[in-house]
Amino acid sequence: MARDRSLDIAVTGISARFPGCSSIDEWWSALLAGRVLTTRYERQALLDAGVPAGLIDDPDYIPVRAHLDDADRFDAAFFHLSPREVELMDPQHRLMLEVAWNALEDAGIAPRNVPLTTGVYASMTGSSYARSLLAGRCLDPLVIDQVIHGCEPDFMAGRIAYKLGLTGPAMAVQTACSSSLVGVHLAVQGLLNGDCDQALVVGAGIAFPQAGYLRTPGGLLSASGCCRPFDARADGVVAGSGVACVVLRRLADAVADDCDSYGVILGTAINNDGGAKAGFYAPSVTAQQALIRTALDTADVDGSTIGYLETHGTGTRIGDPIEWSAASAALAAAGARRVTIGALKANVGHLDAAAGVAALIKALLVTRRGVVPPVAGFGERNALLDEGASPLSIPTAAHAWTGPQPRRAGVSAFGIGGTNAHVIVEQSPERDPLAERHDTAELVLLSAADQDALTRSAARLESRLREDAANLDDVCFTLAVGRSMLSERLAVAGRTGGQVAERLATGLAVTRGSRPAAGAAPVVFLFPGQGAQHPGMALPFTEALPGFSSALETCLDEFDDTLAARLDRVLLDPQCCADELANTDVAQPALFAVEAAAAAALMSLGLVPAAVLGHSLGEVTAVHVAGVLDLHDACAFVTERGGALQACPPGAMLAVGCGETRTRQLLSEYGPDLDLAAVNAPDNCVVAGAVETVAAFHAWLGDRVFSQLLPVTRAFHSALIEPALPQLRAALASPRLRPPSIPLAANVDGCFIQRGEPISAQLLVEQARLPVRFAAAVNAIAQQLPGAVVLEVGPGRTLTTMAEVTGLNPVAMSPRRRADHAAAEDVLAALGHLWVRGQPVDAASICRRGRRIHLPGYPFAGSRWAAPEPDRAPAPVPTISNGAPNVDANGSAPQPGALVAALWAELLGQADLTDDSDFFALGGDSLLITRLARRVNQELGVQVPLRALLVVRTLGRQSALIDDLANSHGQCSGEGVDA
User: What 3-state DSSP class applies to 972?
Assistant: First the structure.
């Protein structure tokens, strides 16, 4: 009978900082190689760390630890913490924030935007950092409060939940060495009870300073400085430093979301030794044996299915035999035949509160990868280990899994004081096979809090794409939905992982930039007119722009069947005869359909224009998008317009490289029968007329100015199209023209039509005959929306080029006049460009294909932090003024402005302050405001209302407030503020 899997829990994300390794993969390689990752310190290094010389020289001092590099580094700005707050925060608190962030990313969940109710179960080693700050010093009581909040375990889970935006239960779990594995048990219970839908379990064990230890004869610590679990030479444990985190979800939910799980937790158990043991520090065979049996029962599996056991493995002469006996008895009684053991402490020492989760991560990797690492440094079995009926075996070299299938393992953690935990894990079920990947362009989006971190992220992703043939769909999807969208951004389009890696390495075709702090600039849609068309012009949008295909289908349904079939052919077949698109009755409906569908798709992605502008035919699209004509009426009108213009006499159009005045002068010199058709830019106009007349004018111009014939067959915006005007008026007689819901700039005079202003049908008739004053219209937009991003929505980049001279920020959707794969990448690159600039483009919708996979997380690399208190002499306790200001030796009271600036620098740890500096933006909070008010009272004898300080947030305004109070001798009573 199959197991009931409804109570199984998936491990969807992991992250850790382990000694001697920069990544989980590097750590795993070290485990397979049997490397011992401890450090033997030089004397000077210990002195530099603050270890007293007398202690170092003690014969019983062992200068060994599994040292965690850069444990003092932390990205304070990333988490919006002030320098002073970070100085007073235990490194364990700091690194748990970073590791928790990375674990959520590894699970494909975007921190700060977590859609699931997520609990936090956090554990840490007692804060030696706090002890170093407080030892022998008379600190301000409010500083002591800040140290407590930054260092004690009561506050670590809440801080993680606050900084990562998590709303489930947040609790500290403190049971000594078993803390974080007990946290796993409680998290599993929380998930099964419905307290949360996702859980973070994080443990940290970092001493301050990281150094050696003083052994005592008969104690738990190794005299040799080597931890050798189950070995004949075992003489105790070695301390280690590390932080580890796992993300848990109910298996059914993880499968439904197609998560890539590291493994499945089948059952957990916890208990306590009670009083039936030799002493408080001693382990209990009975309790450990009962614990494993309970975990197996909870998991509903028998011992014969277990092939690996990650032991607690302290390497002590008494603890190892007790654990061996208890595990042997429990597993043998449950039917186990051969169970290979692991002992992580042999590699990294005892990570204390982080040891349980670290051991769990190792067991998950064993079952996931099917390889068992050796017990590092193992030589000869401890004689006290019972070999008789034990199913346990000690590996001396890495080997492939030879145990039962599916691969299952147990993990043990035993805490001083007797609280024990055991977890049963199993390899993940197979994911459904990947759907066949189509050769389509994809968009990679990366972001970071600063440009250096963005560069590191790009390098890590590039490395991953080169060494791992990950599905690019999955990469793009994971980055879009599983990462927080930060201010510094990068976008690159490509069709394969290798191509994206190459572009990341070279920087070619990569867009980088910053999301504006004040918010995204307004965006304006530009719609090109006839001349931009080419066969297959809808294909790049169909491939790369989500929602375009359905919007195009909706649009084509509004045309009659015959025209719709022709449009479908010319829009989607790049081999279609270009001559068919030269006909106005096909070209104009085709261009309208592409532009209207692209605009609808962009707006469904969240990009709503602040204004619209079309060039000639494109103005019909503009008035539709602005809401003046609905889709049905717009399609009917553009059909009539195309047919009416096609019925006009043939004509030609010529672009000339000069302004309106010079163009009119040339026309006057040449003679009549030519019209000024468009004024596109200060040096770009168009003339139109009969084919022969335009050709003759073109020849006459010669080298006078640049000129170029346009690919059209009618002389638009000239006297030759006047026969079409009655038909256009008739076509607009019945449709209802609504006031625009989006502002638009008009071609006929360049005026900016505001939202709600009525538009007459005559405007749409006149704009077909009168010159296109595109330059004036663009200038009107530049005046109304300075700094706007102008997006050319349609084929080509003609309008983009014209708009560049106005100081606006142009982006073209499809700059190539072709329908190849590169054109689809251009469409995605444009979307990426908009996202980089902070436009509200829905990244998840752009990267709509794929599933969550494990990718490199945020590359934290913050500054080094240490509080100055350990190097300072004890400070006197400040006294509260009795209403009179403190004075200096010259009898002068401090100036309020200078005082407030000095207090800000002290409380926040910030330099380079200005009057516009914001107390709360720099990491201040309500508790620091109370300290600020208290110090002002001490120095000036002025009681400042707390509510006033909360309202006037900047340095300049607070200084002015306090100056006014000091000058008026104001004695306002302080108001309480919630902590």
Answer: coil
| Cα–Cα distance for residue pair 523/606, rounded to 1 Å | 12
Longest dimension (CA), the chain: 115
pLDDT band at 35; cut points 50, 70, 90: very high
Q: Who contacts 345 (Cβ-Cβ below 8 Å, separation ≥6)?
A: 227, 229, 237, 238, 240, 313, 314, 315, 355
User: Cis bond leading into 406, ω under 30°?
Assistant: yes
> If we measure between CA atoms, which residue out of 44, 3, 12, 522 comes closest to residue 261?
12
Cis status, amide bond into 535, omega within 30 of 0: no
Find the angle CA(853)-CA(855)-CA(861) to the nearest 5 degrees. Answer: 155
Domains and CATH numbers, the chain: 13-426 (3.40.47.10), 442-502 (3.30.70.3290), 523-651+712-817 (3.40.366.10), 878-967 (1.10.1200.10)
Instruction: Please name which of 210, 215, 245 lies closest in space to residue 105, comparing C-alpha atoms.
Output: 245
Active site residues: 177, 312, 350, 616
In whole angstroms, what is the distance from residue 702 CA to residue 933 CA?
80
Residue 37, both tokens: 């990752």
pLDDT in tens, 66-82: 999 999 999 999 999 99
E-assigned strand segments in 30-82: 39-40, 61-62, 64-65, 73-74
Gap between the Cα atoms of 927 and 950, Å rounded: 11
User: CA–CA separation, 624 vs 631, rounded Å?
Assistant: 7
90, 96, 157: which is closest to 130 by C-alpha? 90
Please state, in angstroms and rounded to a whole number, the distance separating the CA atoms of residues 160 and 501.
Answer: 33
Q: Determine the Cα–Cα distance for residues 360 and 356; give it in Å rounded to an integer.
A: 6
Q: In whole angstroms, how far apart are CA 718 and each of 509, 715, 746? A: 41, 6, 18
Q: Token match 């104001």: residue?
A: 970
pLDDT per residue as tens digits for the range 294-350? 999 999 999 999 999 999 999 998 899 999 999 999 999 999 999 999 999 999 999
| 853 contacts: CB under 8 Å, gap ≥ 6 | 108, 260, 470, 471, 474, 475, 478
Q: Return d(Cα 540, Cα 826) in angstroms, integer.
A: 8
